[in-house]
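Fold this sequence, please.
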Amino acid sequence: MNPAPRNAVSQPRQVVRAVLNEALESKLGGEVVVKSTTVSGRVFVVERKVAWTVLTGPGARSFSTALIDAKLVSREDVEQVMAECRKSGGNFCETLVAWGLVPRDTLRDLLRHHVAAQLETLFGLAEAQALFVPQPRSYSSQLTFELAELTAHPPQSQSPSSPPELDGEVMANVKQALEEAMKIEGAFAVCLADANSGMTLGSVGGNATFNVEAAAAGNTEVMRAKLKTMKALGIKDRIEDMLITLGEQYHIIRPLAAREGLFLYIALHRANANLAMARFRMADVEKTIQL
């Protein structure tokens, strides 16, 4: 028989965070169940870390959808991996890595971003009921997270790889710069992202089939790989920009000279874009960002 649910509560705001903290302190682990008038969620805790989240309600997206939107896998890939997991009992993420579909570091960054976004939704519910169901659970993956890795603004001493916090004036400047970038001919999505955490500090544009935040999280691996290669070759220089050319799109990654680790990421429709002008304009946009 499973242990009885604990801490069923109904209070404004901080209730979900409080119950999740209790779950993370439990040696047993288990599941935090959240319900509100609009959104329901489940947070799975293993060995005092967050392992997985599931949300249902308006705007909820599955992790497999995030992977497809980031163009890391196809829908067919996802269906085949899920079929294998149902047959073998394997872990979805570990199977993706084992099959060579997504590098582990890239997958971890995107998963962290996805889980963090879902927790932010749950934490922001004005009225919710939450309870912790203690239950020992086996979990065949090391892709689990400390809560500090998932909160929007964790203390820098606890999470040195977390994105830098920006004050209101700086955020307004970033938003203005991104809106200016969206005026570039052919642009349909742009963001400022942190290469260390994979999280965005601001974004504009995107659509139902292109999540710019998920795309930026996936492309942090591109940044890291290039920097690692330069270091291995002894190239002591800075990257001005990187271009990814697709059949119908251009993607430009432009690291910020003024703040190491941050980069601008823009996606353009190839049919409308003037690549040379887009790169020139992105250089100008970078200069307007004051951090």
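The first strand starts at residue 6 and ends at 12. The longest helix spans residues 212-233.
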